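pinging the channel bc i need a second pair of eyes. not urgent but kinda urgent?? the chain im working w is below, pasted from the shared doc
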Amino acid sequence: MLLDYLEKIHEPTSIEGAWDVVVKYMSSFGFDRMLYGFTRFGTATSFGETDDILILTNHSKAYLGPYIDQGMYFDAPMHKWAAKNTGACSWSQFTQPDVQLTPAEQKLMDFNASHRVTAGVTISFRNISNKVKGAIGLVAKAGMSQRDVDFLMGLRGREIVQMCNVAHLKLTSLSYSPAGSRLTDRQRETLHWVSEGKTTRDIATIMGLTTATVEKHLRLARAALNVDTTAQAVIKASHQNQIFSLDP
């Protein structure tokens, strides 16, 4: 299975295509719902703006509304663990008799139970900087207990974790534009030339435009990316793989 998976995950040129492969293969292990999150804009106290976080999931809208949009995930013990650790964590860690949950954490766990999110494993990926964080939560299908999940991880855990690590590397190499921040081809090109050290006049000559049109493309790119300066736009677009990459 592993070699087949590696071949399949290598093929997609879009995040949607790669995510479909992840969902298919994790489902074959019994994880029928999953939630992946990744940010390059974390701070000491948060994962940054929600709009800057890449979120991929096949959970229902009824679950995602409160969990993501209303910020319930901040109180999830799994989320807190992932923010500070690397590797795989069984959810049994949060249900032991000696574990003291805060009222907010217990409310989150009750909410999860109401949506049959009761057994699973969280995999937190290795950071490359203190601003970068990624993790995936794998939820067991109905009928699988946490004991079943732990038994599975004992047998196939190394394989599952490495498959998720490869998926993480693949997903973060592809272009994404959260919350409608997709740049046009012209905006991408102008930012590319700015990153090469070209002036507005240089870019106008290269692209066959007026300087006013170049400035317009840069202004719209800053607005789309929700940043104040062109330098910030270049950095953010680069992080999102919107420039320096081929269209799928």
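so Residues 181-239 form a domain with the Arc Repressor Mutant, subunit A fold (CATH 1.10.10.10). and The longest helix spans residues 146-171. — does that match what u expected or am i reading it wrong
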